[in-house]
């Protein structure tokens, strides 16, 4: 399967919402929204409000509102740019939360709890590799300000859920954690089903190394690197928006690009 770009988005775009977003540029929308909300609240409240995550409450509300807009703007019609394979490089290793103990790749399993409840199902790497293999060359963008073009290979999360119907059609969220639970990522279902969201087992033509998340990591180039959880261990489908390691530390929960 050659699919740098999917032939057709898997999820039909919400035409009304997209038309609305296209009418105004995203930037002016967010900047205008921030100014308007701050204007309404008044700067006094903004600067004296109580703090949540070290960010004053009114500013926190604005960040959350922007995150909401980013979530609405986001859809499968919005694809991250793809690059020629010749541009691909190895990125630096960034972030080791949840990777600090040794892992036996042969004993590793992906444990998925169905949204309907019941026992977790376990998958081997071979189970994931049996799904259609997708290769894409996209940019890994770290929120700290660097980025690297990488050729990734793996299975679409959408293909995984199509093959193993573990999530209810209406399941709103996906929660992904390392085997030890120390790093955890939350996604809305639309982002998880995006055609460029992969359960990834290869970088630049070689199996993942331990520091880059062996044996399986998430890649979702419409989001910042913080969402690309390495050493994926468990997946569940909570009814409420799941916690997220970096959102708990003050970053936007969506972290969309
Ligand atoms: N388990 C785990 N996954 C993680 C992190 C981490 O600390 N632990 N850091 C994230 C961040 S901030 C980035 S930018 C990318 C970096 O991926 P790389 O190390 O393959 O370059 O991994 C993400 N996935
Ligand atoms: Mo990052």
Automatic annotation (TrEMBL):
Source domain of life = Bacteria
**Oxidoreductase molybdopterin-binding domain: from which residue to which, for each copy?**
103-246
Concerning InterPro entries, the annotation shows:
OxRdtase_Mopterin-bd_dom, OxRdtase_Mopterin-bd_sf, TAT_signal
Under PROSITE patterns, the record lists:
TAT
Q: Where is the signal peptide?
A: none
Coiled-coil segments on the chain, per record: none
Q: What is this protein called?
A: Molybdopterin-dependent oxidoreductase
> What is the native source organism of this protein?
Hymenobacter endophyticus
Query: Which taxonomic lineage is given here?
Result: Bacteria, Pseudomonadati, Bacteroidota, Cytophagia, Cytophagales
């Amino acid at each position: 399967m050659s699919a740098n770009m999917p032939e057709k988005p898997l999820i039909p775009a919400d035409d009304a919402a997209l038309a609305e977003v296209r009418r105004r540029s995203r930037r002016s929308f967010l900047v205008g929204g921030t100014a308007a909300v701050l204007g309404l609240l008044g700067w006094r409240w903004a600067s004296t409000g109580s703090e949540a995550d070290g960010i004053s409450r009114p500013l926190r509300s604005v960040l959350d509102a922007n995150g909401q807009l980013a979530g609405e703007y986001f859809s499968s019609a919005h694809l991250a740019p793809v690059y020629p394979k010749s541009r691909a490089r190895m990125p630096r290793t960034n972030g080791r939360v949840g990777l600090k103990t040794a892992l036996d790749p042969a004993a590793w399993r992906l444990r998925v709890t169905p949204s309907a409840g019941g026992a977790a199902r376990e998958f081997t790497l071979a189970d994931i590799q049996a799904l259609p293999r997708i290769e894409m060359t996209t940019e890994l963008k770290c929120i700290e300000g660097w980025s690297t073009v990488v050729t990734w290979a793996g299975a679409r999360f959408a293909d995984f859920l199509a093959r193993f119907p573990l999530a209810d059609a209406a399941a709103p969220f996906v929660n992904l954690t390392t085997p030890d639970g120390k790093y955890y990522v939350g996604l809305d279902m639309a982002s998880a089903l995006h055609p460029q969201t992969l359960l990834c087992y290869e970088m630049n033509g070689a199996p993942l190394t331990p520091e880059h998340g062996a044996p399986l990591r998430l890649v979702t180039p419409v989001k910042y690197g913080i969402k690309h959880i390495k050493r994926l261990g468990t997946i569940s489908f909570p009814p409420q928006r799941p916690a997220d390691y970096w959102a708990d530390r003050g970053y936007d929960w969506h972290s969309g690009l």
